[in-house]
Amino acid sequence: MSGIMLSVLGSTFGGPAATTMDYLVVAGAASGGAGTGGGGGAGGLRTSYGSTSGANSSAESSISVVGGTTYTITVGAGGAAGNYNSSIDCSDGNDSSISGGGISIISIKGARGGQSGPTVFAASSYTGGSGGGAGDYGAGNIDGGSGTASQGFGGGDIKYGSSGNNAMAGGGGAGSAGQNATSNTSAGDGGTGLANSITGSSVLYAGGGGGSADQDNNVGQGGSGVGGHGASGYNTGSGGGGHWLYGTGTSGAGGSGIVVISLDAAAASTTGSPSATTSGARFIYTFQGSGTLTI
Description:
mainly beta, five-stranded antiparallel sheet, disordered N terminus, six-stranded antiparallel sheet
């Protein structure tokens, strides 16, 4: 560490300029459906760190960086919770990104879960980083929403085709598709998230939200423990759980996204108050809100 100065409060650093950047970019996730709701889809996940990126694709390439370049960091908010009795619909998440120096890395927002109300949403009408789980009260099989290649998987489907659908499907995650609802009494779990160790510790990101059911003990569980059974965890980009028609309460809100940047030397400056840590010889900047980073 000799010759390197770090001032966290001022977010100003001195020393040789970094030459390589690794990154993890997770978008904001969607909320679960408000009435007979499917689980919300996780935010899209892209990373150059480790061996696996979103939708179990190969990790992307590290980026060569040049001193003096400023990168704009956007961290997507999660979708707000829906409330059937208050006529508040579920919603998609928001994109997260890194841009500057001729690059643009965008992770796509999670897609909302299907619902029968207040407004009828078919999950299959929405594509996200990960797709929302099928919801809606009605007859027949119902499809979930689609994910985005190399970012996340689709939501689960309703497969049992009864005269009344009483269990909904899980939202997709970065590690697997949302589970189908295959019986009238058991909802689908959210798709699994992905573990990533860019911060120096293994953390699970981007699990899907669980589907709702009219039997409380049969609701879908959140993917990998980070997706929503109700609300999902903040800054993991994980989908919120669906909500049934009756009674009080809301669907689970989508988890906000996160951007983590790993450099081989300290940044010249940052804005937006990211946490600044080290892992081995790497300098780690974790953005839970939007800001900038200058090499």
